[in-house]
Amino acid sequence: MKQRTLIVGNWKMHLNVQQSSLLVSRLHEHIAMHRDIEVVLAPSLLSLQPISLEIDRRKFRLSAQDAFDADEGPQTGEVSFAMLEGLVHYSIIGHSARRIYFGETLQQVRDKMQACVRNKITPILCIGETKQERLAGETRRVLHDQLTTALTHLTAAEVADLVIAYEPVWAISTFQGEKSRPSDMQQAFVYIRDQVEALYGAKAAQAVRVLYGGSVDAHDAALYLELEDCDGVLVGAASLNYKQFSEIVNQAHVLNIKRKND
Ligand code: 13P
User: Does the pLDDT at position 1 exceed 70?
Assistant: First the structure.
């Protein structure tokens, strides 16, 4: 583990502004500040602005869940990365829900990555195979295609700063929600780093943060976090529950202390 452990809560399309605000105040009460942990909240777009005024930025960072790749224009109903600059530190890009429900293509994800970086926001790029692809033995090909296309226009320094979340679609609670075996995930993390190394060199591959996402909760978060190449977790459903989410943060901290003392 080279950097702080990253714990990201993706609230997806849940919680209105008042509910988001309530969850933030509960998280403030239950999560202590840890220098070894970075906690990131990804509420709905609508809640970002009010929450940005409520959070202690030393404790929490904000992430968007998506944005549009052009900086401005006639795209009615969209919000650009340019508009989010200064408000969020991160943005999730290419989440499987975007790819599946909205037909987001590899090229659109690539353009969003470029727009995100252009506007000084760090991407949390989501990649992962569906159940059919896994059963057909296509996991590596899918990860390779999603990764190489998404990174096309980025420099090695930009890639080094980026976050890549491996989220097998079949393990996400809102799709099949099958529990993955934590130890099986390590090979995907290694494959992702190998791909980054082949394209951008060893320095970028070492620095890039790789997260796991897919039905992570307080019962199994530590099993993923203790994997050698896992730099954190991207949590969906369990991040809506302040007890579960706080517990995940706490476990990550305990694990880091244990590692330090070993
Ligand atoms: P769940 O933790 O609900 O499976 O969601 C994972 C996810 O999609 C986070 O981005």
Answer: no
- What's the gap in Å between 78 CA and the centre of ligand 1? 23
H helix intervals, the chain:
17-30, 45-54, 81-84, 96-101, 106-118, 131-135, 139-151, 156-160, 182-200, 202-207, 221-225, 242-261
CA of 229 relative to ligand 1 center, distance in Å: 19
Q: Using only the alpha carbons of the chain, give its radius of gyration.
A: 17
* Ligand 1 atom, smallest distance to 215 CA: 4
95 is annotated as an active-site residue? yes
Q: Which is the catalytic residue, given 34, 38, 95, 133?
A: 95
90, 61 Cβ separation under 8 angstroms: yes
Token couple for 173: 């609670």
Q: Of 170, 99, 172, nearest to 129 (Cα)?
A: 170
174: its two tokens: 């809102």
Task: Based on the residue annotation, tell me whether 129 is a catalytic residue of this protein.
Answer: no
Q: Residue 3's pLDDT is what?
A: 78
Sorted by sequence, the CB contacts under 8 Å of residue 7 that are 6+ apart come out as 37, 38, 39, 40, 232, 233, 235, 245, 248, 249, 252
Structure-block tokens of residue 5: 């452990």
Q: Interhelix angle for 45-54 vs 17-30, to 10°? A: 40
Distances (CA, A) of 242 to 2, 55, 135: 27, 15, 35
SS3 66: coil
Nearest-atom number in ligand 1 for the CA of 217 is: 2
Q: Which tens digits make up the pLDDT trace of 174-220?
A: 998 899 999 999 999 999 999 999 999 999 999 999 999 999 999 99
